[in-house]
Amino acid sequence: MNALEIKNISVTYDKQPALEDVTFSVPEGSLTGIIGPNGAGKSTLIKSILRLIPKLSGDVKVYGKPYKEQRKMIGYVPQRSEVDWDFPTNALDVVLMGRYGHIGWLKRPGKKEKQFAMECLEKVGMQDYAKRQISQLSGGQQQRVFLARALAQDAQIYFMDEPFAGVDAATEKAIMNLLQEWKKQGKTVLVVHHDLQTVRDYFDHCLLLNKTPVKFGPTDKVFTYDNLQETYGGALSILTQESTLLQEG
Amino acid sequence: MNSLIEFLSNPNTQWVLTGSILLGFASGLIGSFVLLKKQSLIGDAMAHATLPGVCIAYIISGVKSTPLFLTGAALTGLLATYFIQAIVKHSRIKTDASIGVVLSVFFGIGIVLLTYITKNMGGNQSGLDDFIFGQAASMVRGDIQTIAVGSFLIILFTSLFFKEFKIAVFDPNYAKGLGIPVGLINSILMALVIGVVVVGIQMVGVVLIAALLITPPLAARYWTDRLGLMSFISGIIGALSGVVGTTVSTIGEGLPTGPLIVLVTSALFLLSLLFGKSKGLITRFFISKGVRHT
What we know:
The structure holds two protein chains of two kinds.
Chain A: E1 2-13, E2 16-27, E3 31-35, H1 42-49, E4 57-62, E5 65-66, E6 74-77, H2 91-96, H3 100-103, H4 111-123, H5 139-153, E7 157-161, H6 169-184, E8 188-192, H7 199-202, E9 205-210, E10 212-218, H8 219-222, H9 225-232, H10 236-248
Parallel strand pairs in A: 3-8, 3-9, 6-7, 7-8
Antiparallel strand pairs in A: 1-2, 1-4, 4-5, 9-10
Helix pairs in contact in A: 4-5, 5-6, 9-10
Chain B: H1 2-9, H2 11-36, H3 40-48, H4 50-61, H5 66-90, H6 95-120, H7 123-126, H8 130-133, H9 141-160, H10 162-170, H11 172-177, H12 182-204, H13 209-220, H14 227-251, H15 257-275, H16 281-293
Pfam families (chain A): ABC_tran
GO molecular function, one term (chain A): ATP binding
Family (chain A): Belongs to the ABC transporter superfamily.
């Protein structure tokens, strides 16, 4: 069963094409790394799927139904840099935001919601920081708060935008554990990822993207030297490292 | 002292003070979201842009009618906001420059129209001059009722949409992902800001009403790290500024209300900057000293 079917997505920025004709289908319960050079449109792809930015064309089906009907099944972890961490709020409050879609208009989160949010913080090892102002958290801790918020959303398909960027070892481990737990529960996860060295460890599927998909499929088959060279084009400095790794592996 | 007691026991004064408290609280409350959204200056431009609206309403109708004035004010205020956003969207001009241009053009037109009215339409009787710096003393019961009811509605709506405003300001993309209509929420927020500006200009004036949106939340931020408490403290600071400024302005005959309100707000801001619970400069100095000694 395909959790997600993406058909012919195209996006332009200022009349410049950012994504061209992206089509792929993601099987249920898979962990997909979205990989490609800077400016390849990785974040743009998730944002256009989630309808955060307008598409020129394209269609998204979630478990065979239109995206709009299935929105509650979708969770999103934005890039950490997208919000103002000086905002006057604490970790628990941010996690509670994950429940806003369930709570509905004009109502306030109650005791049950707070309890659940607290459990989500525990799952990422952040329960001791619940009342901490968010600007006083380290980058990794902020990322874990975002993870807890995604957990609180209780979605079936998760999109994560560079969750591993600039985090400490504890957070990296927390993200890994969460990804594995989600996989076990049959949830589907798509992650924008930069670090080529860890792709094989983290993901069972790969989307190699450079404005248009170069390849999509199981990591063993897709994550090869030739495909990477095609994706990254001239950016060989990264590839030299990678090719030695691949040949050794 | 006697004059103050006499002043406070006058039912007209009590009306004016109630109005100023509600207006101050409403602007402080909604101002918190405007500040966090980093749109304080748009509020300022909107306020200045209400002047031509008031003048045009007078030129067309030829009578002094508060509802007409406020309608005109709202229309040109909205138009200015639209222009600011359209300029940013369709050109390479950044928001700050766009605000600067629109603010001065609208305010310029307002001043020209005001001069025309004063010279040709017996504008001294129109009381339009009072719209520049505000004049609480010149307001009649109906004006105050407009302020009180308008402010009360703004406070009510802000409380109702608190959760939605919070997420739409903090993380709009995530909110959109949840299916929350962020565009609509932002429009409601903007409408409430226009509301405060429009009902407030008669009391505080078009030049300075924005200070009542900007300064109270800035001061409140020095006392707390929680949005709920921040917006409440901001409301209290706004209300306090409103009531003190209005009192001084009404007792000291002819003193414009707006500047006095702003002076009180600024004094409260200065106090917060120095002594704020967690972030005040002097508080921080003593905290760091304390840490060094232990």
